[in-house]
Design brief:
The chain is of the alpha+beta class and 627 residues long. It folds into 4 domains: 6-159, Orthogonal Bundle (Arp2/3 complex 21 kDa subunit ARPC3), CATH 1.10.1760; 199-283, no CATH class; 322-403, Immunoglobulin-like, CATH 2.60.40; 407-623, PPM-type phosphatase domain (Phosphatase 2c, domain 1, 4-Layer Sandwich). It is 53% helix and 16% strand. The protein has 19 helices and 16 strands. The protein has helices at 6-18, 28-40, 44-58, 61-84, 91-111, 117-149, 162-188, 199-214, 220-226, 228-244, 255-260, 264-311, 322-333, 367-378, 449-469, 473-485, 562-566, 572-585, 591-605, and strands at 337-345, 351-358, 365-366, 382-384, 391-392, 397-403, 407-416, 426-432, 437-444, 496-502, 507-513, 518-522, 525-529, 546-550, 556-560, 614-623. A 5-stranded antiparallel beta sheet has the order 7-16-15-12-13. β8 (426-432) and β9 (437-444) form a beta hairpin. The chain is flat and about 110 Å long. Its EC number is 3.1.3.16. The chain crosses the membrane at residues 6-24, 31-58, 64-81, 88-112, 132-149. This is Stage II sporulation protein E (SpoIIE).
Length: 627
């Protein structure tokens, strides 16, 4: 058994402190820290006690019991697995145990909820997915931090070349991704909601009703022996009518049945009762099927997140040529000692440089200073990648740098509320991602006023949370679609207009679901982008066709809600062409000026009486100056 050092004790104390911070009675950060530390330090029982101490202070009793069970399960599974794996628990294996335990615990506690557990699981699905994604991301952040505090790299990776290390990590993450994908597929097997009772269920109801009503009737032998076919036909017709009509009356029964049956009132009452029970059971079966499909979808989304994370580990050949050697010499001249250096290209052509470096004692150098030196070698501006230490320490550590984006964006917006309303039913957001992308999204709620605002805000809020957590656009849209599809108000929809602009190469990708046309303006040239896809939640599967456009310096992307186009006139087929003609002639030179001009043009066309909410969102793309 390894002895506890001061750094181990510091990690344990930090574990108790981190577990004080909870989110809506959920504790993904604390669980992630516990699991990361459990894989990397001795004193595991003391670590568990510290984590539980923090949780006991911050969580209500029900949540504390849940997370106590979760931590206990992780420890038990780790103990069993350790006997099977002589190499011990690696951080990757521990991450898999954490994710598996959190998913299993979520399902188990959902089933234990009692009456209405299906609706409870559906209602908490978004928070559970976000909790799992947050725990996964935090785990790797904490694992790296603890390994750094311990002055070593994670288990089994100390002397491994960068390329081999990256490939092993990538393969392990890919294996976890495939495991979750198979789990998702197993939940989808033989599961599909039904719209009506099947033949066997109708036969069972028929037998139950006739047995209950007819067995001791004086005319039983006559009905079921002399006129058997007509009795069967009449009974099935009554059952079918009961399934179609909620309050079926005696007058609705077939005429020949009313004349022959002396217990028609009893038969009708029993048929209505049995059909009601069967319809209720069918409804519950459908809700259970929807819950299984939704859970399968969440497993699939987790697989996508892990898969996307593994894809970020570059497959490109690692270069160690003349520029890299020159960078090492220039860094050394500035008192930054480099033991290893490598460079690679990302999928969009963006270059990355990785170094293992340290500085002499009594000399402080920042990562930005190193980035500036690397940039001068390659002739382009470089920046430290997110997660890289801001100060280069006196011990060997890994630092990564990436080529700065080539473009910047300027945003303009203009809005008008429908006349007679206090708030707009349109919502939008602009997100600047660490990946070097700008994401613009616009949602138009059904109708107007507070109800439309609430629905569109929900769509935009979910999108922001999912994208910032690490979900890609397709996964985020599928999750939003499932949330809307399983909501308590299935007939309330909001459009979704999503644009992603890569600031490195100018590539613009748009996903439009029920949204109005968008336009790309370059001086007098205007390109129209449309889609026939329906809003999220309308169809069982989302329609999210991706439209692609190449933007250059000076281009402006124009997004708008349908109220802007409606303001141009009642001829819907011509409104898009009218807007394109206006954009061609408009002399606006910046995004805000263009947004104001579009809104003023639409308001003038409708005589300043907006019949729907109007929102205009404009994004201008401009090249950054070279180094």
């Amino acid at each position: 058994m390894r002895k506890l050092g001061m750094k181990d004790l510091l990690v344990i104390v930090l574990g108790a402190f981190i577990n004080l911070f909870v989110w809506h009675d959920r504790n993904p950060v604390g669980v992630a820290f516990f699991c990361a530390a459990y894989a990397l330090i001795p004193g595991k029982m003391l670590l568990a006690m510290a984590a539980l101490f923090g949780m006991a202070y911050a969580l209500p009793m029900t949540s504390f019991i849940r997370y106590t069970g979760l931590i206990t399960t992780v420890m038990a599974m780790a103990a069993v697995l350790k006997k099977w794996r002589p190499a011990g628990l690696t951080p990757v294996v521990m991450c898999g145990l954490m994710v598996l335990t959190m998913v299993t615990a979520g399902v188990g506690y959902g089933l234990a909820y009692g009456e209405g557990w299906q609706q409870h699981m559906l209602d908490t699905l978004p928070e559970s997915a976000l909790e799992l994604a947050a725990a996964f991301v935090c785990y790797w952040l904490f694992a790296g931090m603890i390994a750094w505090m311990k002055g070593r790299r994670p288990v089994g990776r100390r002397n491994m070349p960068m390329k081999e290390e990256a490939m092993i990590t990538k393969n392990q993450l890919h294996a976890f991704s495939e495991s979750f994908r198979k789990l998702s597929q197993s939940f989808e097997v033989d599961v599909s909601p039904r719209g009506a009772l099947n033949d066997q269920e109708m036969q069972d109801i028929f037998n139950a009703v006739t047995e209950q009503v007819c067995k001791d009737c004086s005319r039983c032998s006559y009905c079921w022996e002399n006129v058997f076919e007509d009795s069967c036909e009449s009974a099935y017709e009554i059952l079918k009518l009961c399934s179609e009509r909620v309050n079926m009356k005696k007058k609705d029964l077939p005429e020949r049945f009313r004349q022959r049956c002396v217990r028609s009132d009893n038969f009708l009452a029993e048929a209505r009762r049995m059909m009601g029970l069967a319809q209720t059971n069918l409804s519950w079966q459908n809700r259970l099927a929807e819950s299984r499909l939704a859970l399968a979808g969440q497993f699939g989304e987790v697989a996508d997140v892990i898969g996307d994370f593994s894809k970020q580990i570059s497959d490109e050949p690692v270069r160690k040529g003349a520029p890299e050697k020159q960078a090492v010499h220039r860094l050394a001249a500035q008192k930054i000692n480099v033991r290893r250096i490598a460079a690679s290209d990302r999928s969009n052509g963006r270059k990355c440089v990785y170094i293992e470096a340290k500085t002499p004692k009594n000399i402080e150098k920042t990562a930005q200073e190193a980035a500036d030196i690397i940039g001068r070698v390659y002739g382009r501006r470089y920046l430290p990648r997110p997660g890289t230490a801001s100060v280069i320490g006196h011990r060997w550590e890994m630092l990564s740098f990436e080529e700065d984006v080539r473009y910047r964006t300027i945003i303009g917006d203009a809005r008008m509320v429908r006349m007679g309303e206090a708030v707009s039913g349109d919502s939008f957001t602009v997100m600047h991602m660490e990946s070097g992308q700008t994401v613009l999204s616009l949602s138009d709620g059904m109708g107007s006023g507070e109800k439309a605002e609430k629905e569109s805000n929900r769509i935009i809020g979910l999108l922001e949370q999912l994208l910032s957590t690490g979900f890609n656009r397709q996964s985020a849209i599928r999750l939003i679609h499932s949330v809307v599809l399983s909501g308590s108000e299935p007939h309330t929809y909001s459009t979704l207009d999503l644009a992603t602009l890569d600031l490195f190469n100018g590539k613009c990708e748009l996903i439009k679901m029920g949204a109005a046309a968008s336009f790309i303006k370059n001086g007098p040239d205007v390109k129209k982008i449309t889609s026939e896809a329906l809003p999220p939640g309308v169809l069982p599967e989302p329609e999210n066709e991706v439209k692609t456009a190449e933007m250059v310096h000076g281009d402006m992307l124009v997004m708008m809600s349908d109220g802007v186009l409606m303001g141009l006139g009642q001829d819907d087929d011509r409104n898009e062409e009218k807007m394109a003609e206006f954009l061609k002639s408009c002399q606006a030179v910046n995004p805000q000026e263009l947004a104001n001009a579009i809104l003023n043009h639409a308001m003038a066309a409708c005589h300043y009486e907006a019949e729907d909410d109007m929102t205009v969102l404009v994004c201008g793309l401009y090249r950054k100056p070279k180094l």
